[in-house]
Amino acid sequence: MDFDKLEVVDATPLRSLPPGITPFPPPTSNPTPVKGKVSVSKRKNSKTPSSKTTSSAKSNKKIKISEEVRLSSLEGDSASVSGVLMKFDALRRRLLQIGNDEPNQRPDLKAGTIMMSNGFRTNTRKRIGGVPGIGVGDIFYFRIETCLVGLHTPIMAGIDYLVSKNAEEPLAVSIVSSGGYEDDVGDGKVLIYTGQGGNVSTDQKLERGNLALEKSLHRGNEVRVIRGVKDIENPNCKVYMYDGLYKIQESWTDKSKMGAAVFKYKLVRIPGQREAFTIWKSIQTWRNNISSRPGLILQDITSGAEKIPVSLVNEVDGLTKPPQFVYVTGLKHSRTTESSIGCSCQGTCVPNSDCSCIRANGGDTPYANGVLVIQKSVVHECGPSCSCYPDCSNQVSQNGLKLRLEVFKTKDKGWGLRSWDPIRAGTFICEYAGEVIGKDDRGGGANVDDEYTFNATNTENYYSNEWNYVPELIEEERHMDSNEKFKPSSPIMISAKKMGNVSRFMNHSCSPNVLWQLVMHGKSKDSFPHIMFYALKHIPPMTELTYNYENCGLKKRCFCGSSNCRSYFG
Fold it and tell me: For residues 396 and 228, what is the distance between their CA atoms, to the nearest angstrom?
């Protein structure tokens, strides 16, 4: 049977959605973007960027949405998948930012509805097997994300399937195992999956998704498995990980804990795929017993300087260690710096207030639930001179490491940095710590050309709007960055050769997963900005953390291995 020629029938009707969320159209063979807007409620009696910048924005040419993101497509690739997910999460963060006073809000579903109704999606054709642009081990923080990129269409049902037009026989294409039923997660190679439907007193029926799994057992087709695991940062939420392709080996009926009949399916992972769920299980073992980590050299290279230990691991050539350096958690200045001007707020600072730090950010706090909302020339956090310090939510990057990081030996790039924890897009990772190289230092003994020097002096074009949301999607005018003319009072050069932190081990990539952002603590034109790193996208555990060195230092040959590799960087 030619699985690629199966025609999609709308086999998985959408279940009820929370109030205020408009259902979106199902995938079709020839998707057409739906015209019209989705209503998005904004804060009452508050200024939005559109009201603050209407006069200036009207004179600017409006950028067409189609120029921002690829519209819906039957066949995706890594670029289209990455673009859709990036724009979705940027929109979700913005909706969370402007609706933080709305009870029971679901910015993820609102953003998904807007994306769908405007045709921002990819891989719209249901298929058996892998999905273009999605790799084994990729993670998602919302079920709607898997729908937008064609990995798993229903946002609530655990079984996705398609129907052959000729045979009218359903075949399963993907399942989500996230603890809603009595599943046995197994050892990462086998999954015992419980069918859907029924309840404590009603037996499950062999129909729809359950029937599709039964037919897939006999047909022997591949089934994508997405596993939901507990989010360490938000224990009440899940992180959804694509664990690769499985085949159904057997099925049987069983009794649930409450006595109802349920269907059970044994799925076995196809060999030769990249490890995914087994990595999560290994990390849990290391958390319980750090000495069980293979290749461990040091349990904590920070010697207690950070609240969370950073392990040093070498699984490549034994006990080789990186050159010695002094671990510091921030910047070291050779001269006295200008004190910043703090706000006079009591407690945490709120949007659209008289707070000087909030006004410097254009009227909004730069973070939503601790996650960076947009990238711009400079972000103003409340600093030590502020009355609200240290209890304000607008000081995300000043509280040290929050992720369980690991310095490890790479095969061909020296040392690198990765995380045991999954990282959500926009999450603060670390600061580029080290010695500040001033104007007087450049002519003296300081080596400004070593590979550990971060040169951010040219800040004019260091960021782009690619990571940010599309304002037109929520009827906002495209507004100017209130800090786009930011000019530092002195060159921004930091050397981490002699002293630094974990950031000195972060390598370059032409396809990075980390971005850097200038952050000011307080407000003063003479204060020295900090270089902070944030996740560019969702990053799975044990994935190397990389950023783009372009215009940040010496020109060197690149070994990043990315399909977009430019051969050189710097």
Answer: 27
With tokens 């579903």, the residue in question is: 109
Q: Which helix (H) or strand (E) holds 418?
A: strand 415-419
Amino acid type, 250: E
Q: What is the pLDDT of residues 510-544, one digit of tens each?
A: 899 999 999 998 766 557 899 999 999 999 999 99
pLDDT tens-digit series, residues 439-477: 656 544 445 557 888 988 766 656 777 899 999 999 888
Alpha-carbon 191 to chain mean position: 27
Say how many C-beta atoms besides its own lie within 10 A of residue 220's C-beta: 10
CA diameter of the chain: 80
Per DSSP, the residues of 292-306 read GSTTEEES-TTTTSS
* Beta-strand relationship, 507-508 and 546-547: parallel
Per residue in 268-299, pLDDT tens?
999 999 999 999 999 999 999 999 999 999 99
pTM: 0.86
What are the Cα distances from residue 132, in Å, to 23, 75, 149, 151, 286? Answer: 26, 7, 9, 9, 33
Residue 203 CB neighbour total at 10 angstroms: 16
Q: Measured between alpha carbons, how far is residue 286 from residues 279, 281, 306, 331, 404 in Å?
A: 11, 9, 19, 32, 11
- Among residues 153, 134, 168, the alpha carbon closest in space to that of 23 is found at 153
Pairwise CA distance, residues 185 & 476, whole Å: 45
